[in-house]
Amino acid sequence: MDSSRIGRRIAFWRQRRGFTQTEFGRLMGQTKRWVQDLEGGKRQQDPRLSVLVRAAEVLRIPLEQLLSDRPSGPTAGSTPPTGAVGVVDALYESPDSTDPPTLTVLRQRLFYCCEAFQACHYSALARELPALVVGASKAARNAPVHQYSEAQAVLSRVYQLVTSYLHKYGEATAIPAALAADRALAAAERSGDPVQIGAASRRVAKSLVYQQRPETAVEFATSAARRLADGLADRGTLGLSTLGMLHLSAALAASSQERTTDRVRAAVGFVDEADDVADRQGSELNEDWTMFGPTNVGLHRVDVLIRFEDGWSALEAADDLDRASLAAMTRERRAGYHIAVARASLLTRRRADAVEELLKADKLAPEEIEGRPDAVNLVKDVVGATPDPGGQLRALARRCGLPA
């Protein structure tokens, strides 16, 4: 048994759970120096099994996580729900010979689906999207010349919504999400509408991040912003919202890389550019379902700081948000705020605050917490960092498919 590798694994999980060496030692009934020796592989040549069993209990992980670097199997929330599979299947479905729905009907269905997305009603969205994808594809294929551009714009917006929905389930749906994003951009280019081109471009940028290509994502988003800036400015608040969201997409892509001074500076700079656009736009607006404005920019600033693991600065940025404006945001954005504050609280070892924020997010939007891999993993980390999880947190963990 390689005691040094076991020690490194214990250190990794201790830090992930937010325990200091002193706190972990107290839970183990030992001193800080004992923990230092254990993590450094100096405690003894072969740590006793009883010690490892107790460490696994304290860290709330399977014992095999300390004995091997191999993953113990899929985690809860690591596979998409059944509804998402139906949406993916619709991307590959061949249109039949029946008449396509009218563009008016498609826009009505699209409006309903966008509202469902912003309300975090993803199960309802999963029921509606497959037919919407097939119907929009058929309408675009059969559109007369005078409706061609409009039909392509509607098709692009449908694919954009599919991309955003599939991105909710992380790596499990990253490939079909990338396909939908590429189709969205192709349809947007055919429509000639700079708003749809810009909106589709930010979906492509996010897909590039999921493909482990964040540098390419930054370049793609910034290039799109430069190329489309004049055309978007001519479209008033709708165009400005699109432009601002492109800058925020670049910021999130930049903060998806390992932290360096240059990357932090670049990511913050992109957020500042979005802030300038928000000032030009004025108040908070839900143009093209973006909820773009000063508050959304502030929420992205918090997210960027968390991605760079600067929990204290993230909490300060969260405190600067206007409470009334935050309360007026969509359910999805408000739930995202509570999740972000929970992450920042965990980074700063404010465990009680992390629990409180998670419970608020779950009460507000259960589907944003209980079915998404990132959120489920956060719940797992908060449970693991909490020496005595209360009944509400344990119940949340069980709803996420986690042991509690």
From TrEMBL:
InterPro entries: Cro/C1-type_HTH, Lambda_DNA-bd_dom_sf. SMART domains: HTH_XRE. Residues 10-66 form the HTH cro/C1-type domain. It holds the Pfam family HTH_31. Gene3D superfamilies: lambda repressor-like DNA-binding domains. This is Helix-turn-helix transcriptional regulator. The lineage of its organism: Bacteria, Bacillati, Actinomycetota, Actinomycetes, Kitasatosporales.
